């Protein structure tokens, strides 16, 4: 089996797992659509990304619905525990599916560990593969989800929104900042003044 066969089998398994999502978005299983958007953004932002990054990006939210937010206490501590649990669950699921796809032996195990490290958000800012995944996730959030998120939080003040945008911006690399401001990213039109204010402040 070629490396490309392995890669395609893993992607197919990731997609099959996300196709089980009971939640829908634009007529598709929600996390399957999200995974496709992640891969599409990676192609635009970092078309020469490594195999590990391509796999990690596709598995970023794999079966996310299986670890619901309300399975932890609904406070700040619970949120942090949920997020940590989510990263661990998603990394383990991605690794198991890669094994099923045929990643094995020393080389295969090394690839699995690289993907799990990125999906588990380990080494942010120091591991380039984890940082690329974070950049892509933030770019996808800004282009596809920030406006919907804003609509769901009508009680948030402008200060709160500036804080959210700045936190997202802080997690991104200089390359992602440049991409976001280059005209290559479709910024949510109604939020452009707010985004501009947040990142120039």
Instruction: Note the run of SSEs as H and E.
Output: HEEHHHHHHHH
Range of helix content: 55-70%
- The fold-level CATH name is Hypothetical protein af1432
The total count of helices amounts to 9
Major beta-sheet overview: 2 strands, antiparallel
Mean pLDDT: 94
Question: What is the strand content?
Answer: under 5%
Q: Please state the second-level CATH architecture.
A: Orthogonal Bundle
Determine the N-to-C terminus distance. Answer: 53 Å
Q: Describe the strand arrangement of the main beta sheet, using strand numbers.
A: 1-2
Sequence stretches where pLDDT stays below 50 over 5 or more residues: none
Estimated structural class: mainly alpha
Supply Rg: 17 Å
- The rough form would be described as globular
Fold and architecture overview:
With 201 residues, the chain is mainly alpha-helical. It has a single domain (3-200), classed as Hypothetical protein af1432, CATH 1.10.3210. It is 68% helix and 2% strand. A two-stranded antiparallel ribbon has the order 1-2. α1 crosses α4 and α2 packs across α6 (128-151). The longest helix has 26 residues, at 76-101.
């Amino acid at each position: 089996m070629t490396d490309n066969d392995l890669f395609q089998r893993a992607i197919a398994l990731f997609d099959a797992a996300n196709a089980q999502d009971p939640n829908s978005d634009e007529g598709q299983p929600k996390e399957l659509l999200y995974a496709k958007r992640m891969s599409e953004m990676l192609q635009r932002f970092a078309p020469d990304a490594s195999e590990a990054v391509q796999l990690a990006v596709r598995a970023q939210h794999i079966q996310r619905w299986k670890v619901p937010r309300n399975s932890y206490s609904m406070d700040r501590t619970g949120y942090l525990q949920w997020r940590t649990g989510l990263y661990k669950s998603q990394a383990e699921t991605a690794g198991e599916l890669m094994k099923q796809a045929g990643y094995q032996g020393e080389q295969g195990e090394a690839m699995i560990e690289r993907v799990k490290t990125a999906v588990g958000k380990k080494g942010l800012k120091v591991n380039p593969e984890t940082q690329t995944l974070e950049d892509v996730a933030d770019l996808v959030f800004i282009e596809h989800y920030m406006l919907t998120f804003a609509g769901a939080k009508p009680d948030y003040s402008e200060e709160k929104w500036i804080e959210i945008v700045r936190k997202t911006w802080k997690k991104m690399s200089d390359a992602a900042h440049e991409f976001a401001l280059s005209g290559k990213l479709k910024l949510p039109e109604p939020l452009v003044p707010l985004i501009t204010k947040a990142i120039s402040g």
